[in-house]
Amino acid sequence: MSDSETKRISxxxxxxxxxASATAVAATAVGAVTAPEAKAAPAAKAPKWESKLSVxxxxxxxxxxxxxxxxxxxxxxxxxxxxxxxxxxxxxxxxAGVAQVYDPxxxxxxxxxxxxxxxxxxxxxxxxxAIELTATKMKDIAAKYTRCGMLFSAGADMQSGFVNxxxxxxxxFNVTSHESLCLLSGNRAFLDTFGDVPLPDVxxxxxxxxxxxxxxxxxxxPDSMDLxxxxxxxxxxxxxxxxxxxxxxxxxxxxxxxxxxxxAFMLALANVIISEKLYDAKYxxxxxxxxxxxxxxxADMTPEWAEKQTGIPAxxxxxxxxxxxxAAPASMxxxxxxxxxxxxxTQIRRSFAIVNALLGNYDRPGGLVPARPAGLKKVAxxxxxxxxxxxxxxxxxxxxxxxxxxGSFVLTRExxxxxxxxxxxxxxVYKTNPMATAPERRKTRExxxxxDFMVVVDIAMSDTAWMADLVLPAPSAMERQDPVQALQSGxxxxxxxxxxxxxxxxxxxxxxxDILKALAGKLGLAEFFDFDIPAYRLKQLAxxxxxxxxxxxxxxxxxPNPPLGGTDGAPFKTPSQKxxxxxxxxxxxGLDPLPVYxxxxxxxxxxxxxxxxxxxxxxxxxxxxxNNALLSEFEPENMLWLNEDAAKELGVRQGDVVQVESPAxxxxxxxxxxxxxxxxxxxxxxxxxxxxxxxxxxxxxxASIVELMESRFDSICGNSAIHETFLSVKKKGxx
Length: 735
Ligand SMILES: Nc1nc2c(c(=O)[nH]1)N[C@H]1C(S)=C(S)[C@@H](COP(=O)(O)OP(=O)(O)OC[C@H]3O[C@@H](n4cnc5c(=O)[nH]c(N)nc54)[C@H](O)[C@@H]3O)O[C@H]1N2
Ligand SMILES: Nc1nc2c(c(=O)[nH]1)N[C@H]1C(S)=C(S)[C@@H](COP(=O)(O)OP(=O)(O)OC[C@H]3O[C@@H](n4cnc5c(=O)[nH]c(N)nc54)[C@H](O)[C@@H]3O)O[C@H]1N2
Ligand code: SF4
Ligand SMILES: [Mo]
Hints:
CATH class of the largest domain: Alpha Beta
Oligomer: single chain
Number of strands: 28
Shape: globular
Bound molecules: ligand MGD, iron/sulfur cluster, molybdenum atom
Strand order of the largest sheet: 5-4-17-16-15-6-7
CATH architecture of the largest domain: 3-Layer(aba) Sandwich
Number of domains: 4
Distance between the termini: 25 Å
Number of helices: 26
Helix content: 25-40%
CATH topology of the largest domain: Rossmann fold
């Protein structure tokens, strides 16, 4: 394909070219597995056959499940039909949860590093020694560098809140999570426009634009299943993606947009909706502020202008604007989830929010709905005051609108490397794997080299655990008791779930709650952990005395869900109390109050001409489940998606090994020569090229994408920006 041809390929042509099979992902099921280490389970007195309710932990969606337990061994996981958020689905990864429980690669005992950092020499120690050592190191660091000298990082988990509680009680402001590598720029944008972060009601929508969201592979419940349902019921789904994803394959229309130009598309939609007065004038006057300023701002941003930026034909943009408006308010620009894309991602997502505002779809079926009431009580406490604390987080003030409780991982890492504004010398890591999910792996290593002590609580010897001083074995979700969590499910309302163990903890694993409680005891902080999880859950559920019994019986509790439209007439939580098309707060801060389009950066080096983009496989979660024995059968290695014309030019054939290089690092992997990607873009799956000797399926297999990614960040909130890297590609051995 020539460059001009890649700009728009009709879906039919594409299917013919690619012979693509449009496989829906939700139905992929892995059969029952036999536990490879069944011996590890206490089978002797266990009943022959039991069914137990739990919640999947293979990703953050937390689909309700029923575990089949045979003589103490989990043999199969099935969806819980009472858990309607997942629409009766347990995906491929959920099914493969059994292989995570019985993974021979699990960390089985506390392990103390005895060789050089990253050398992989470990000594098994007892839990008493491990707790004593961690407490002593934390005390030393607090004494030498203040309590903020400890950094705490926790990933998506029902117990992660306990890590935050511990950090607060211990006295450190420095807490990060996966969120600043994921969705904070999107949250920032919607918060600063609507005053909250609304959820898409896909199920009732008639028209959905999916831009930079591959919902049929990157599963988000219930959105992924609802998209499939509405596609079958005549709704229109338009996908903008430089790759021909599974979502593109099933969509009504697909446009291989020039990466980084989505804002131009959105502003052109706004141009048409405003210039043709396709909005509800009364609604706009009563509920939004800044329409005049927006109208002036987008006056020249015609579909013809946007075509030059995006490669999407002007006539299609104009038509889509009219179709969206005709279907409004049951139409939407899907807000997306992982918005860690570009340095101006907050502004890009502001343009998404603005189009939604013009559709008047807030709190309307088929539009964006405010988070539904969950009624879960916070178990509050009064954190102690420490006089010697620095004034704030180590990354404070590095960007104008940091989320205080999350910060920015990449900016925190920068501060640790520099030792400024103050030193951080200890790191407590729970269930997150920045060595595989934070851009520019060598910088994460550099950060770790500054530390006096690093402890990682993980189920596996992740790349991050591999770099630690101490690794503590965690039980899988099937072995844990977890507090209550509220899950949002669009218009249908929130639901509440918890976990009770399906089987007892394997090996010597211990939940992070127990670890933190033990540390609190050693550090004089016992009063902040003077409860157990059942007592904690009861406090959380204080508003619903009946909920505990119902969760025990059904695996889920549904709090009352008021009908949509409840916010009509109520002020929005913004300074103007309206939806801020023009963001007054940004204006006051000297930021662009309306999203100003800047063409994406081009490559500074002619040899590095391919933009690297990130994306999901339905069978893999982020950077870790690649090592799962069942899932690795579906995705045994990562390959570089390389457009067939680009490949021809480079003399690269299907399956050839290519060498890729960016300013951040290098890698080698096989080429997947395909028409399914733009000529100027390359893609590879994350989670490969691991360094940990404890990951038998992924160590050294394929290339590490985080080795290649440059560490850029969103200029407003510090979310990482992982699509800002250009690669050179050449056939291995070629000059
Ligand atoms: N199976 C599976 N499901 C998951 C996850 C998982 O790891 N595996 N992770 C979960 C999590 S934590 C998240 S945050 C979500 C993430 O889900 P999504 O937000 O959908 O993110 P991705 O799939 O990473 O990327 C979306 C798509 O954006 C495209 N893209 C890249 N650059 C551009 C651009 O400039 N413009 C446009 N329009 N498109 C672009 C990429 O090619 C990619 O296909 O998925 C969740 N669900
Ligand atoms: N290259 C690249 N980087 C990315 C992304 C990408 O697609 N590609 N996506 C971004 C997004 S959207 C997100 S949300 C983040 C996610 O980033 P991370 O939070 O790092 O997510 P995972 O890679 O899933 O890592 C989870 C870790 O938890 C461990 N684990 C699993 N189960 C358990 C358990 O029960 N207990 C304990 N203690 N540990 C457990 C796993 O072994 C793994 O080490 O990554 C971001 N960064
Ligand atoms: S989407 Fe899949 S992996 Fe995620 S919680 Fe649901 S079943 Fe588990
Ligand atoms: Mo994410």
